[in-house]
Amino acid sequence: MNPEKLAKLQANANRSKGAPRRVVKKVHRPVAQDDRKLQGALEKLALVAQPYVEEVNMFLEEGTVLHFRQPKVHVSAASNTYAIYGRGEEKELTELVPGILNQLGPDSLASLRKLAESYQQSAAGQAALAAEGDDEVPDLVESFEEASIEETKETTA
């Protein structure tokens, strides 16, 4: 056995003499334990689970929507308290427009109008740029072969 390796192993040993070598196992706690803590907190608030909720949309002031697909919803009607948890995605209002028109309130309708106006202005600006520029291909005035021959003459001279 190599004495250098042996000395290195002895220096790295974190155990007392005579103690067996043991591999330390890391115990991973299941997610269910966190879920139990959450359920306990919800029970303290007297929240009741509401099944069959397909989606939840929260409209933010920036014009974006926090969208939950198939969330878990708990409600306490007496205290006007809602607990919504699940995987949420932040989306633009335009991505969800056809399906959420019936969910929009007066504030959201105003932001939707502003969004539509800005979209119309940008579309009008693009149309003006398209009208200014010629879409036709310009006629070929010179031949490319003659231009390349002239370039080669200039570089050799």
UniProtKB/TrEMBL annotation:
Predominant subcellular localization, coarse grouping: cytoplasm
Ranges of Basic residues composition bias in the record: 18-29
Top-level taxon: Eukaryota
Subcellular location: Cytoplasm; Nucleus
Domain NAC-A/B: 32-97
A GO term from the CC aspect: nucleus
Name listed for the protein in its UniProt record: Nascent polypeptide-associated complex subunit beta
Source organism: Linnemannia hyalina
Lineage: Eukaryota, Fungi, Fungi incertae sedis, Mucoromycota, Mortierellomycotina
